[in-house]
UniProtKB/TrEMBL annotation, chain A:
Residues 13-77 form the MrpA C-terminal/MbhD domain. This is DUF4040 domain-containing protein. GO terms for cellular component: plasma membrane. Keywords: Cell membrane, Membrane, Transmembrane, Transmembrane helix. Pfam families: MbhD. It is found in: Cell membrane.
Amino acid sequence: MIELLVHILLLAGLVISAFMVWHMDDLISAAIAFGAFSFLLSLEFLMLQAPDVAIAEAGIGAGLTTAIFVIAIRGTEKDGGASE
Amino acid sequence: MNMSNLVRSGANIMMPFILVYGFYIVVHGHLTPGGGFQGGAVIATAVVLLMVAYSRADVFASIPKNVLKNSETAGLLLFIGTALLALTAGIAFFGNWLLGAGSLFGTPVAFGINPGDINTGGIIPILNIAVGIEVLGAMGILLLVMLGGMKGDAE
């Protein structure tokens, strides 16, 4: 029962964080939301009894991919008023 | 462009713990979940954390590209060398020539449920460590090259 509750919470968090990636205007905020998505996905892998995949997802998805996005965003310049 | 002081202090505090956790995953690869690839990725995360927190000039001054390149080559050579040494022992390619020898990683595995002994597994821990070194070098050089492609920011 408690396991089902954790599953539902994690999946709801996945949907919410995926929505936040789309909704954020600031690029850094979107990258951090994507990192949160990867972290929740690795917790979901852990709940599904796949700790090996969970460690790989936490290292690659939440760590390296977020760092790649942050480095790429640092390489760009902020252009004023370019929303839409 | 440096990140803020908060980000740099956080990176300084977090980095040794991430390093120790990554080495733990690599060395215990034959006992617990994880292994060379996962542990190497976690260690590379610690290196990349410094790249994110510090400015471009500091990163290129403190993380030499040659060390990462050489560690990637050394990991690959250790992997294939361990596999080739099995031929000299008279068994097949990738044969476990250290298993049961009583030397490094050579203790026989106890029967039944046990807490696990790190000194078992033969060549499997050595292959895990080789893959860990290789993945660390590959991920680090990937991010370093990507950082090098950026336009130069103000010192």
